[in-house]
Amino acid sequence: MAEYDIWGNDSAQGDGDALRKMPLSFEHNRLKAKRMTLGDYEVVAAYDKPKFEYHSLRREVGVMDVSYLTFVRASGSERREVLHKQLTANFESFQEGQLRRAFLLNDAGGFLADVEVVALGEFDLMVAPPTLPADRLISAMNRNLLMEDVSFEDTADTVTALAIVGENKGWLARALGLDFGRGEERTIRPARVGGQSVHLFRSDYFGSAPIILCRGAGASTVWQTLVAAVRELDGLPVGHEAFDAWRIEHGVLWYGPDLGTDSTPLDADLARCVDFAKDVSFPGREALLKVRQNADPPQRFCGLILDVQRPPEGTIPLRFSEGLPAGTLKSVGFSRQRNKYVGVGLIKWRDPLPWSPLIMMMPDGSTADASVVPLPFPEELGIEEEAEF
After folding, report:
1. Average per-residue pLDDT in the chain?
2. 223, 168, 197: which is closest to 384 by C-alpha?
3. What is this structure's pTM?
4. What is the dihedral of CA 288, 289, 295, 297, to 10 degrees?
5. Pairing of strands 62-65, 236-237
């Protein structure tokens, strides 16, 4: 097959307001999957009991269908110039097969988009979490265009994406003979799984997890091969409910639930994805430079352990114990490790903040307690750091 022919031109835009279906929905039906809505998709919430899937991620390994990711094709002779001018990473030296994470910011340095860009020969592929739908990403990228030769196209329906997630993801990748690169290297490379041609890369959106891209009827074979291999390592296929708690505890922030116009890459400890030295001034650069002049950003993302019986809904303001505004609660998930709801908070920074108590202002006028912890949740709370592979 051609080097990147899994990204054909047969993309589809969905059925208006109808939820998109996962390409492997029939495989998930065979496993009696429970469903939920995520972005524009009907996705798997769980196959079995979420607590078993959560502990599989914590102790072993899981495989996920992540075909709900947003995939947008950037094409045209001036696409690199546009990416270089609008996004925070440097795309002048972008070589075929490379991957870089970058942000589209507003003038205040707040997030408008978070993408991983892959160089694929005649076009570039922009990958984003499902909480940044393709139409919003395309609209954001088109906003500052003049007459440049560039176009952006939703191409999600052409591909199946599968992720290997969890503590033993490296073991499973090696058992399958897959090479995803090491350290800070970010590339996409061809491989075979279950006799099928696939492409591999690692994504920050799943904790540097291996992502396997495949297409057509062979996707079922790849999925079945991964599920069988995961079970050999005492792992499980995993739905989004268990993954979301795991994501929170590991400090994996997503655009939408966590990152937005009220936060910057410096708040999220993502300055590594911002090239301040490149030769163009991308939106938000000057605002970020002013923040960098201070020793600490004015706010940071922190972990939270919540003293509640059910997940809070809506916008939940946070206050310090003396009553002063502290920030906002973002993502919330249920930790089976400590049998409590946990969350991510965007909190005004002051020392000493970790381990401090906060007050959640609930929509019904009541209050509830929360405790601040660092991100990722530290080892003494039962969350171990993942080994790189």
Report:
1. 89
2. 168
3. 0.91
4. -10
5. parallel
